[in-house]
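Reading a protein record of the kind used here takes only a little practice. These numbers are not coordinates but entries in a learned vocabulary of local backbone shapes. Here is one such record, which you should read through line by line.
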Amino acid sequence: MQFSCSLNLAYVATLFALVNVAVACTIGQGLQIIARFQAPTCRNGTCDGGLWDEIDGYVKQAKLGRVPIMININHEWKIANAWSTDSKKYVSDMVKSYVDDGAIVTAYVSTDYGEEPESDVKGNVQDWLCSDFGYDYPCPITGIFFDEAPADPRESLYTIYEGYTNYARSIMSDAFIFYNAGGTWGTSYPYQKITSAYCVREKPRDEFVSDWPSEVAQWIRDNDMEGYTDSVSGTQMGQTAIIIYDATESYSSWEEVANIGRDNNVKWVSVTTDYESLPDYHVHIIDYLCEHTYGDACRLTN
């Protein structure tokens, strides 16, 4: 549910998920895609969406296979807002299509590990969740990807980030809140109570595979980071994520990452070679996730 806002909404990125998704309670491991989108190229009312169109194909494939999918628009609102009117309308329409097909769409907001001025962070949250780019319906962003979130024991930082979650949900009550910390906290402050999903590792693929520590798996269990449904917002909370880059195009490169995630109750996994242009293996990842969730009942065909 979105509350009245004199502005309105916008944008995207992606991850893997082993999860019940935010609004629709789909099960199974899912995919998060994180991408730096370029403005669509528009001439005489016709647009070439580029990466926007490519991701639409992945979203539709995931819908067919009942695979959870999250898209993260990995750049700041001011970049997108500077695009042409035709480009912004095309993006609004495309994001609406993603959400209609069941995707979670989050938008990037930098926090600089608590050092970013709170007014700037909240201003960016409002811009994303409230901008309609001048059209009669909002671009239906469904949440916020808070980058550079803390893996820090200080209560003062927890209070700041709790405020960011509360602010986002004062605008959109069921907003999906993703914190990209890339590490685990050594404290009892319950970040799982203020995030839909929390990234516990962000690393290059080879380093991640050789350095997945057993203490992280134990930490996930000890801190109840295996996901639950919030009784107030109805959204999924307390999920975990891993963000892995520099993976090669080989099957074994991304499969091992997915397996580590599944074996350790990691809900969302993002794996890519490059954020600027997506690897071709995403189509195979979605097929893989469908088969590992539904077996012979998987709706996708090979």
